[in-house]
Structures are given as structure tokens and as C-alpha cells.
Amino acid sequence: MRRTVLLAAMTLICVLSVSAQQHNLDTHKSTLTIHVGKTGVFSGLGHEHEVHAPIQSGTADTGSHPTVEMHVDARALRVIDKGESEKDRAEVQKTMLGPKVLDSERHHEIVFKSTGAEPDGQGRWTLRGNLTLRGQTRPLRCM
After folding, report:
1. Could you tell me which CATH number the domain at 2-142 has?
2. Which of 27, 48, 64, 82 sits at 20 to 30 Å (Cα–Cα) from 90?
3. Strand-pair partners of 52
4. pLDDT tens, position by position, 36-72
5. What is the pLDDT of residue 36?
């Protein structure tokens, strides 16, 4: 499951609320949604998950070279799988935050720093950048 969560970051959806130029993200209106897909040899046995988290802090510059940086507390990630029982969601939540996947007690912070952005409709952007998750940084594209 750890590999699935790390690969799921490749389909990260960022909904950010900012106005033009350099600003702090409005943490009351900005959210992070992660779609965890099934990949690999055992994908037929896996499940897809949806995870939400509040954005703890961040900045966005919508000027001529748009950039975004956001910080999320890994311990605040919540599994919201629709159609699953509360028991199943709780088990996925426990596994996701636990030492085998995110190890959120040791690695509290998830950070995304963009390296490029293109507009993708009104108020939406496709971002490229680096995601630091569980103490490791990898390139990422989020839309």
C-alpha cells in the first residue's frame, strides 16, 4: 500500500483559493484531495481511495511565472471513501497514517513546491513540482 500511496501522488488534485500576485493561501477555502488508484501486478486486488486534508499553510504567485508552495500536516489526512463502511474507512485510515505507509507520527509534514504551472480553466492550474512525503522528495504533476 505504501507504493500505491506514493504513486497516487501523481494524480494529486489541488484546489487553491488565491487572488492575483503573491499571496498566502486561504487555508479556510483551500483543500487537498488525493485519488489513490490501483497500480501494478496486484491492482485487481486493490481498492481506490479518496483522501482529503486541509492545507496548513502556503503561498501562491499568479503573476507571469506562477508558483505554489503548500504545507499539509500528514496527521490531518482523512479517508473519505464513499460507499465504504465506517469500519473499512477506519482501517484504511489507520494503515495510511501508520508506520508502513506515511509514518505520520515521524513525518508530520507534507510539502509541495511547484516548478511550473499552466492555467487549466477558471481558477484552476496544472502544476509541476516537487513533493516531499515521508521525508523523501520526488517530482510530481498535479492538476
Report:
1. 2.40.128.110
2. 27
3. 33, 78
4. 776 655 445 467 888 899 999 998 887 777 788 999 9
5. 79
